[in-house]
From TrEMBL:
Protein name: Pyridoxamine 5'-phosphate oxidase N-terminal domain-containing protein
Gene3D superfamilies: Electron Transport, Fmn-binding Protein, Chain A
Pfam families the record matches: PNPOx_N (PF01243)
Keywords, ordered alphabetically: Oxidoreductase
Gene Ontology, cellular component aspect: cytosol
NCBIfam families named among the record's database cross-references: Rv1155_F420 (TIGR03618)
GO MF annotation: an example: oxidoreductase activity, acting on the CH-CH group of donors
Top-level division of the source organism's lineage: Bacteria
Organism: Streptomyces abyssalis
Domain Pyridoxamine 5'-phosphate oxidase N-terminal: start-end pairs: 1-108
Amino acid sequence: MDEELLALLAGHKLGVLVTLKRDGRPQLSNVNYTYDSARRLIRISVTADRAKTRNLLRDPRASFHVRSEDGWAWTVAEGDAELTPVAADPQDETVEELIDVFRAIQGEHPDWDEYRAAMVADRRLVVRLGVQHAYGQPQR
């Protein structure tokens, strides 16, 4: 895989997740994300009741688009998504991973107990998208 294309993923926190609707058409969602270059893994916090989540439960194939600030460089990463269980308890493994995702995107939260409770109340989970293929236009 072209490391220059993957470097664009590592340099940003906002991208577009593309899932497939029941009729096969794409459904696009702007999302905050974190990218682990060592594991080639994109992680996104989502709620259980959103279209993107339902789409991925039905069909795990997904694409992820990110672009440079000027729009000339871009990467599309493709892979099959894995979804964690929905957060059910403030101390469960899903909430721990949601904390990791939050920290990677925004840093420390002012009240982790409040955050943990909100993750359960919101019925959040983590989408893990392993990058199996990438294409695009690298930075010059």
